[in-house]
């Protein structure tokens, strides 16, 4: 693969996940990732700060998708309806052709404490993006952060189910179901 070919970040992500799955996260070097992608170490560092960050490359895009869809939801939408719109926008980007990659990524993260910690940070970031978007819609605390936390919980619960190779549902459908289950459970808390 020539160095000038497009989509260097995606090539690096795919190379990293493949190498982490083959030989483990700790045993894989940045040089190996760059080489597998047909790129240089310098190119790797142009896109990512370290090998851990290559696995969380879409975090900023995901946060923006959530925030934009929440902002665009109808004026009369409840906080959870606005969060549902955000989750629909995010989960729609995870098409079934990404399922195998997601399954491998989940396995790599599950085997490494450092990556698990970084995954928690990503979850916090996504919840914060939803909370901020709800604040901009005029939703007060603690309603905004509670709706965002329910959204984040629903998304991650759904993602785990969706990434299971035996699953046949879309991530959007599973996320909607998970959010509805959490909403119903919250009603029963009182």
Write a concise synopsis of the structure shown.
With 190 residues, the chain is an all-alpha fold. It has helices at residues 8-23, 30-37, 41-47, 59-72, 79-91, 99-110, 113-136, 143-162, 171-187.
Highlighted features:
190 residues; mainly alpha; 9 helices
The gross shape turns out to be elongated
Q: Overall mean pLDDT score?
A: 94
List unreliable stretches of 5+ residues. none
Helix content: 55-70%
Q: What is the rounded Rg?
A: 18 Å
Please explain how this structure is put together.
Helix content is 69%, strand content 0%. The longest helix is centred in the middle third of the chain and has 24 residues, at 113-136. It has 190 residues and is mostly helical. The protein is elongated and about 55 Å long.
Which helices and strands occur, and which strands form pairs?
Elements (H helix, E strand, L loop, with lengths): L7 H16 L6 H8 L3 H7 L11 H14 L6 H13 L7 H12 L2 H24 L6 H20 L8 H17 L3
